[in-house]
Amino acid sequence: MENKKHDFLFEKENYKILLIGIAVIAVGFILMAGGGSADPKVFSDEIFNFRRIRLAPTVVLIGFGITVYSIIKNPKK
What we know:
Number of helices: 2
Order of helices and strands: HH
Structural class: mainly alpha
Radius of gyration: 20 Å
Strand content: under 5%
Number of strands: 0
């Protein structure tokens, strides 16, 4: 019986960068959470603050950029 060496699609460094990107995306979605009102009949302007409208989507897009970079990066060069 032969021992087959399992080759991974990416190198270890690519997986580290990929995990960082996924963590940044998760932080972005956590920043989007909340802002609701305790009473559904009362409107809350809290959903339109800077954190939910500008910061969180920017963080998510940066996270997607990091994950794309981790896929494209070739550590052998």
